[in-house]
Amino acid sequence: MRMPLRDTSAVAAGVLAPLATALVLVPLRTSVTHTNLALLLVVVVVAVAAFGNRFAGALAALSAAAWFDFFLTTPYQSFHIQDRADIETGVLLLLVGLIVSQLAAYGRTMRRVAVTDATHLERLHGTTRLARSSTSSDDVVQRVRQELVEVLELRGCRFEYGTLVGRPPRLEPDGSVKVDGWVWDLERQGWPEGEIELRALAHGRYQGRFMMTPEPGSVPPSLEARLVAADLAAQAAAALDDDSVSAGPRP
Question: Which of 16, 71, 172, 223 lies in the 20 to 30 Å Cα band around 32?
Fold first, then answer.
């Protein structure tokens, strides 16, 4: 699987941003205390961790400590440090950078989780409101189809009425994916090739299935997103089941 562009950029920033900052600080190394220079590098580490992830933040902390030693302490352009105070500052820079970067990445993760949870909840509530107010189950199906594309970051999605044909990979209600009856390791292997079905079942009755096409090489969505997708499909199935009860079987 390919690394997301944001993570790739964060890793690159983790290596290059402390280096660039240390070069900018070179003219100040004789007029500004080494402690203050180290604090400026910590700010860069925090910025990288907040933008990227824990790995990028840790990489930035290591990079900052190395370039602080190389450019800002005597002897210059050497990884050898003569002054004990500079050694202590360098070690503290590394430790503080690692700790703060992890805290920044954790805060960013929690913020993203909160936003994601709110978005998923709105998807479910919006579909529920439509199912209650709409007189056409097809409207609900189309709404769910669009929501599935967004929540699972799909290339495309279509809905099939009628009987089951073939045995494509299947997204189960518990969020797992099965291929030929076996549980597929989605986290390690990514999406299986071809279309993936998500069956719409209501009260044990099969109403149809959503045929989903993932983006090639994309990172699989979280378990939470997959569970939301299953709930959305169940809402479409309930709307179709209500229609079939009131109007008879769909031709």
Answer: 16
